[in-house]
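Worked example 2:
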Amino acid sequence: AAAQRGFAAWSATPVAEVREAVDFCRYYAEQARLALSPVAMPGPTGEANDLRYRGRGAFVCISPWNFPLAIFTGQVAAALVAGNAVVAKPAAQTPLVAARAVAHLHAAGVAPGALQFVPGDGRIGAALVAEAGVAGVVFTGSTRVARDINRSLAARDAAIVPLIAETGGINAMIVDATALPEQVCDDVMASAFRSAGQRCSALRLLCVQEDVADHVLAMIAGAAGELRVGDPRDPATHVGPVIDARARERLEAWIATHAAGGRLRFRHADAARPRAGGTFVAPAMIALDRASDLREEIFGPVLHVMRWRASDLGALIDDIAGNGFGLTLGIHSRIDATIGRIAERLAVGNIYVNRNMIGAVVGTQPFGGSGRSGTGPKAGGPNYLQRFALEQTLCVNTAAVGGNASLLAQDE
């Protein structure tokens, strides 16, 4: 029965996520040849200096449930190709997809001793991180858990090791009066509600210039009302379920609190006809007065909206910066100076201009944030693998064995 459930979990994995997992494997293999090969350093004749890379040891890879194959595979592939052994712990909600991925990696030739699969809840992850022999941790998940991991690593009486963390974000989209409303609407639908808002990069806070806000927000509410909520295996579905009952309860409580305060601006009709047999949350829009009113990541199909005046753009940017997150940002404007001003001020990992904010492509849009959104380096980028490796300089006195032979081959 467990095997059948595992097959069902694997076969239901979206094609795009399988493709991303493959992209990670191919990209990191190529990057290892470029970034982890020995580098000859300059120096005086009679001396050879090489910068080399070697594995750190055993890495603990802790992956999230929202990309149970792609992020899991990317973490494992990066750690392995840099010369490390891996203990892989997937999220407690999605162990079956990870189990199948590990089985395929073993079948492809990865030694079982180099890759160990350890499913379990947060207690298992905490125990792994606390082990003195751990040489590094790569984690994707909540900011709170990343802080716990950081404290645990610091408290060990052991080597100081790297934590590579990608966490959440209060991801904003700033829309000015020059933006194309239809394009904004399409991009908001994709960014806020695709995958039921359960992407790290999903839009959480939409900031629309007051001059066009009535028209743009009415269009967005109309489009959101046409979204189909249901089984994600059905190609006609736009919004699937949230991950579990606990997540649904938290989201519904958040929506109810703001509805009681008169701030609910839209709720999908499915909220009035809840369906049995699934943890569905109907899309919602909640009005805020200021960007700083949203102080935590709400991980689901809930879009917070606010209006801003053209004269207050600087204050809006400061409000967004003040939350301490820095994962993704959307900008919709046809004024280059406005785009440049916003991008220059906000230290956000991924900025998307006049397009949606999701679906970072391996090798093209390296993904990851700063501040409360992560440590870097970015996954799927050219700087990622070095963090999994140790640097070693080898300096050889070639004069001790006869000097620099290459000088004899040079013309006078």
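Residues 1-12 have pLDDT under 50 and may be disordered. Residues 15 and 290 are 39 Å apart (CA to CA).
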